[in-house]
């Protein structure tokens, strides 16, 4: 997949870890890309590195309108509505996507402004605990899952060829930077993200606090298991709040499930003799299933390890008869898609 498969320039609003890394990868592939960053110092740093970046939102959106660019909202959920209003004012005919980690809230904000005919939601499942332009890097999305949504196909929304083109461009953009595109509607995405992204943040924060409460000796003894299990607790607190609070309903269900498992484990530890057999066995099997799906298991067992996922692959052409059924099928399987 090459950036030639993307039919228009890309305009990225917000150049932190995700937006900045996307800018770097598209620039490295010689695809037309420019961006906006609210932080003037961050914008200057990007310019000094040779990137086409501005700290003027209005001018950036007016340029996007002139060039018919695909606009990417790469900001926290708390800033999405402000940018949607700016797009309505300065680039009302442009197609746009977002990379926010919650999708229902964004889609609701888009529909409230009647912009869903030009919008395709997306979410790259990639990142680090760092943030800002300085955290951005080339290759962040290589082999990462990039969710692309398609709820409009089942809503009472009038769609045209323009929307189909936007959908294809969003998918092609993700493929062009090395990601694996997995289609999902916003509800199933948020339910899954609560389990595998947002709950881990809650648990990491909890583990970090419990370890720290043990005092100096606990922190001195902390090694790999504590380091790895608390890694995402190093994420900027405002970003954690935005993703978890923005997906509260789905996160509560996942958290209740985790609390039930922990309460059962506590009861088993308090019994005579104490045991964590059920937790350890079930957790081990679940981890093995994850490693098999992600390709990590095969890489461990290989003499020359290369991680390639075991997600099923479906090929589709946007707009052909029954392609919405293909997307639903891919969602059910957690399959990645190839677009032609």
From TrEMBL:
A GO term for molecular function: NAD+ binding
Oxidoreductase in keyword set: yes
SUPFAM superfamilies listed in its UniProt record: 6-phosphogluconate dehydrogenase C-terminal domain-like (SSF48179), NAD(P)-binding Rossmann-fold domains (SSF51735)
GO biological process, one term: tyrosine biosynthetic process
PROSITE patterns on file: PDH_ADH
Superkingdom of the organism of origin: Bacteria
InterPro entries documented for this protein: 6-PGluconate_DH-like_C_sf, NAD(P)-bd_dom_sf, PDH_C, PDH_N, Preph/Arog_dehydrog, Prephen_DH
Pfam families recorded: PDH_C (PF20463), PDH_N (PF02153)
Prephenate/arogenate dehydrogenase domain mapped to chain residues: 8-310
UniProt xrefs under Gene3D superfamilies: 6-phosphogluconate dehydrogenase C-terminal like domain (1.10.3660.10), NAD(P)-binding Rossmann-like Domain (3.40.50.720)
Family: Belongs to the prephenate/arogenate dehydrogenase family.
Protein name per UniProt: Prephenate dehydrogenase
Organism: Corynebacterium deserti GIMN1.010
């Amino acid at each position: 997949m090459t950036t030639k498969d993307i039919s228009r320039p890309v305009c990225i609003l917000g150049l932190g870890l995700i937006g900045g890394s996307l800018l770097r990868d598209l620039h490295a592939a010689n695809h037309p890309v420019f961006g906006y960053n609210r932080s003037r110092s961050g914008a200057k740093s990007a310019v000094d590195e040779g990137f086409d970046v501005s700290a003027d939102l209005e001018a950036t959106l007016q340029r996007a309108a002139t060039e018919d660019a695909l606009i990417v909202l790469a900001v926290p959920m708390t800033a999405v509505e402000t940018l949607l209003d700016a797009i309505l004012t300065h680039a009302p005919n442009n197609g746009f996507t977002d990379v926010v980690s919650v999708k229902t809230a964004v889609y609701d904000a888009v529909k409230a402004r009647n912009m869903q005919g030009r919008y395709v939601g997306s979410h790259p499942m990639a990142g680090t605990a760092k943030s800002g332009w300085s955290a951005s890097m080339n290759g962040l999305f290589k082999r990462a899952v990039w969710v692309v949504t398609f709820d409009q196909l089942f809503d009472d929304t009038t769609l045209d060829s323009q929307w189909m083109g936007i959908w294809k461009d969003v998918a092609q953009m993700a493929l062009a930077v090395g990601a694996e595109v997995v289609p999902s509607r916003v509800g199933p995405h948020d339910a899954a993200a609560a389990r595998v992204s947002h709950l881990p943040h809650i648990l990491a924060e909890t583990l970090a606090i419990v370890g720290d409460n043990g005092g100096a000796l606990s922190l001195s003894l902390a090694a790999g298991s504590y380091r790895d299990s608390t890694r995402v607790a190093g994420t900027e607190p405002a970003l954690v709040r935005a993703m978890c609070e923005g997906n509260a309903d789905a996160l509560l269900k996942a958290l209740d499930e985790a609390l039930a498992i922990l309460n059962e484990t506590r009861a088993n530890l308090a019994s005579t003799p104490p045991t964590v057999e059920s937790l350890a066995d079930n957790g081990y099997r679940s981890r093995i299933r994850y490693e098999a799906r992600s390709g990590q298991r095969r890489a461990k067992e290989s003499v020359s390890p290369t991680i390639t996922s075991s997600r099923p692959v479906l090929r589709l052409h946007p707009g052909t008869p029954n392609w919405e059924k293909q997307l639903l099928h891919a969602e059910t399987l957690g399959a990645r898609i190839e677009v032609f």
